[in-house]
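Please, is this right?
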Amino acid sequence: AGAASAELDRARSLVLAHFCGSHAPDWEVIWTAGATASLRLVAEHFQFCGRSALLMPSACHTSVLGMRGPASGRGATCRCADRPGDLLRLAAQATEAAEAEAAEAEVEPAAGSEAAAGAGAEAEARAVHHLAVLPVECNLTGDVSDIRAASAGLAQLGTGRGGTWWLMLDAAKAAATGPLHLHASGAALCAVSFYKLFGSPTGLGALLVRRDALRLLRKDSRHGYFGGGSVAAALPHPLSSPPAAPPHAPRDDQNGCGGGGSDAGGSDAGGSDAGG
């Protein structure tokens, strides 16, 4: 077990060094069953709410389009951008809509330190997070997305009542054809497939997450499946399953979120595969 853990840590360090360079300490690796599993994990655990938005280009892999199901199930608005410039326009519209809704629901907080603390906690619980998912390179055409422009445009939308935008990259194709510098991209999450990098093994990929974005992938133990060492204890009466406290940030998809299958044979949407 000790040798296996050491090899796993070494593999993690190599992956972070390759994609993050000197900024490796700012990132974490979550092992998954492939790029599809990484995308599914984010779709099912990202903190979407009724004022959130999920955006993606129309020309993207089926696995990216499939993120709309879990997101819309929690009330998020899902839109596809037909042209590169449309994504930022749709993001601005979603931000304005969320800000307007927040203004309508705004209540003046009560006086007093306890009331202020309670208001702060309530504000955190009401925080709105939006997600934009972009393929770095299209499998079908080889077109490369202007990731830096998209990241800069999303950052300009601010982090106020209209919500905070986070950028996720589908790098399954791009990671196999050239260098990918995650820090320079401005992205907070990235899905990769080792099958597409090396040709084997199948069923192995990773979700790279910037550490400040790990909090966005909280699991809801009230509704989610658990197994293995992902909980501290499992009590049948009463029904209770407190999550395990890992020695560091979560590193693998222990609950089988990769059940959607390996990305070795992912299908395309509308004849276009943008890199899932």
Summary: The longest helix spans residues 86-105. Residues 27 and 176 are 20 Å apart (CA to CA).
